[in-house]
């Protein structure tokens, strides 16, 4: 028997249970069909649940192999599976891959003629079709309803299941009716729901709206340890130089996500002028152009795609080496999906988001204008607006924090973390390609002006995090009463533990805060600890910056705060 966690739909709680173990048969089928000797995390549990004819909901990160979970059971003789997905590129790629393996699979979308649809239906009726891919809107068309009422469907796999959430980031009203469609079938199939972005609290709601019956709950974790995360505060003019340098300095395929079609075209043209094999991709392109660009990207040309969110979802290219977001996303869910395009082969990959304060101001205006637009109920629209603005706040926190970026991301999705630092993000470890300092930007600006080109903006990043804009003439240092406590604490702490800390932990200690790190390392015994109780964080932060500018404090290579007279051991 195999131990499982299932979701009790009456209480919303997880409970323990057992299912018959089909591991041996599943592994044999996996080897025969795919040539793999073992499953990835979560795959075997999902396959086993389906073979036991038990509903399931699986939260698995991008690139974890969700498709194997429903494709493998679909290979059984005499079975028929319907896969519901909003991602045409994914459906097209998976059908082609299955057909290449000799698996009878088909896709019905707007490009399939009535005659072709009927041929597909006839193949399924005759037992010659194993997997049929459709968009959720297709379920309620007259011909598909007639087909479904006269055909036994063994498995309904619902991909991107979070789209059912009415105040979710990717809400699609057609997903609300999937549960009703399933309930109306003459014989209820096993229903398997998959998503990469649902938080722990959202899972019961997704299961309820899809009509799942006590589903097995599978969660493999959101962490993508092979991806390094960086967030850089750069004004748009500074971003141009950064992105050009980035593409020039990083080999392999990459994606630059832009928030407008105009930016996609501009960046593709700009990169092409610099000798980069690049193309723009966005929703209004014709299906023919989309297919051409997607197929070319899979084959390695173009090397770089400049895209809106229309690109990447479901494009099965495992060796994308980097993703740059030219501006923040509207939510961490959207960001996680886009960043997750990188490194699906498990090899080292990069995610960089470039942002500035005006980006978030613009996002707030857009969300307030359009949030909940697909909903008729005013209360639901208001709830949708609050939810979307809350998700934007989380994205802004990710960009602004000086804590571990991976930890912030995983905390948001409700995943417990054992470590405070991941050693693979911009707030934990330093890398030179994400260190854009004001002096370098000024040097580039002077060089650009000598060439007669557009002046490069001097706004940028001090060290690795956002920092403040540089002043051409530094103001003279004027001491304040709190300065002695700050300098004493930083110096004493460095002598005690031999290294610097980030601003946040320094400020917390000066305010008399407590925590495992502070207590365990004896920071509460250092001179200056607790001497600024009652002083607000912003004021202390400003004094730290002033002291650093005056040379009484300095920054370590990891942007840690150090005594101005010492070096980090």
From TrEMBL:
It comes from the Bacteria. It catalyses: Couples ATP hydrolysis with the unwinding of duplex DNA by translocating in the 3'-5' direction. One of its GO terms (cellular component) is cytoplasm. GO terms for molecular function: 3'-5' DNA helicase activity; ATP binding; DNA binding; four-way junction helicase activity; hydrolase activity; metal ion binding. Its EC number is 5.6.2.4. Keywords: ATP-binding, DNA-binding, Helicase, Hydrolase, Isomerase, Metal-binding, Nucleotide-binding. It is an enzyme of class 5 (isomerase). Pfam families: DEAD (PF00270), Helicase_C (PF00271), RecQ_Zn_bind (PF16124). The keyword Hydrolase applies. The keyword Isomerase applies. Residues 469-482 have a biased composition (Acidic residues). PANTHER family: ATP-DEPENDENT DNA HELICASE Q1, DNA HELICASE RECQ FAMILY MEMBER. Belongs to the helicase family. RecQ subfamily. This is ATP-dependent DNA helicase RecQ. It comes from Bifidobacterium catenulatum.
């Amino acid at each position: 028997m195999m131990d499982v966690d299932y979701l009790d739909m009456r209480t919303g709680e997880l409970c323990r249970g057992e299912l018959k173990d089909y591991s041996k048969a599943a592994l044999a089928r996996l080897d025969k069909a795919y040539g793999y000797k073992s499953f990835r995390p979560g795959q075997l549990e999902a396959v086993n649940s389906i073979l036991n004819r038990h509903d399931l909901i699986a939260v698995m990160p991008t690139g974890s192999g969700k498709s194997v979970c429903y494709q493998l059971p679909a290979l059984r003789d005499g079975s028929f599976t319907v896969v519901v997905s909003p991602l045409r590129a994914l459906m097209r790629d998976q059908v082609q891959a299955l057909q290449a393996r000799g698996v009878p699979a088909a896709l019905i979308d707007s490009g399939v003629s009535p005659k072709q649809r009927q041929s597909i239906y006839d193949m399924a009726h005759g037992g010659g079709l194993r997997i049929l891919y459709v968009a959720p809107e297709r379920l309620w068309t007259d011909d598909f309803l007639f087909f479904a009422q006269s055909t036994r469907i063994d498995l309904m796999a619902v991909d991107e299941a979070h789209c059912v959430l009415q105040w979710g980031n990717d809400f699609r009203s057609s997903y609300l009716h999937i549960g009703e469609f399933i309930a109306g079938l003459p014989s209820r199939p096993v229903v398997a729901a998959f998503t990469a972005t649902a938080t722990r609290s959202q899972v019961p709601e997704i299961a309820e709206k899809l009509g799942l019956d006590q589903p097995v709950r599978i969660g493999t974790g959101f962490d993508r340890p092979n991806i390094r995360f960086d967030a850089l505060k750069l004004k748009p003019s500074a971003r141009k130089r950064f992105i050009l340098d980035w593409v020039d300095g990083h080999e392999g395929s990459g994606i630059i996500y832009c928030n407008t079609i105009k930016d996609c075209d501009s960046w593709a043209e700009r990169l092409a002028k610099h000798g980069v094999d690049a193309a723009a991709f966005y929703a209004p392109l014709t299906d023919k152009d989309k297919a051409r660009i997607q197929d070319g990207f899979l084959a390695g040309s173009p090397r770089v795609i400049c895209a809106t969110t229309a690109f990447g979802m479901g494009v099965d290219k495992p060796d994308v080496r980097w993703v740059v977001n030219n501006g923040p996303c509207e939510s961490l869910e959207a960001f996680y999906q886009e960043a997750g395009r990188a490194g699906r082969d498990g090899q080292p990959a990069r995610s960089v988001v470039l942002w500035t304060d005006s980006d978030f101001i613009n996002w707030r205006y857009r969300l307030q204008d359009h949030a909940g637009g697909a909903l008729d109920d005013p209360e639901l629209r208001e709830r949708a607006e609050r939810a979307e603005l809350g998700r934007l706040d989380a994205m802004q926190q990710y960009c602004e924090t000086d804590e571990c970026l991976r930890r912030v991301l995983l905390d948001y999705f409700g995943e417990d973390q054992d470590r405070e630092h991941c050693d693979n993000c911009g707030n934990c470890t330093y890398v030179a390609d994400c260190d854009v300092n004001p002096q370098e930007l000024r040097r580039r600006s002077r060089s650009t002006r000598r060439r007669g080109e557009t002046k490069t903006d001097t706004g940028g990043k001090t060290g690795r995090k956002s920092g403040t804009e540089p002043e051409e003439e530094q103001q003279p240092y004027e001491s304040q009463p709190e300065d002695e406590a700050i300098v004493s604490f930083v110096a004493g702490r460095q002598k005690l533990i031999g290294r610097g800390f980030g601003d946040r932990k320094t400020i917390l200690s000066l305010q008399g805060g407590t925590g495992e790190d502070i207590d365990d390392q004896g920071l509460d015994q250092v001179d200056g600890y607790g001497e600024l109780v009652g002083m607000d964080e912003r004021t202390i932060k400003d004094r730290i910056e002033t002291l650093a500018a005056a040379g009484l404090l300095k920054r370590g290579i990891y942007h840690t705060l150090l005594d101005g007279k010492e070096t980090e051991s």
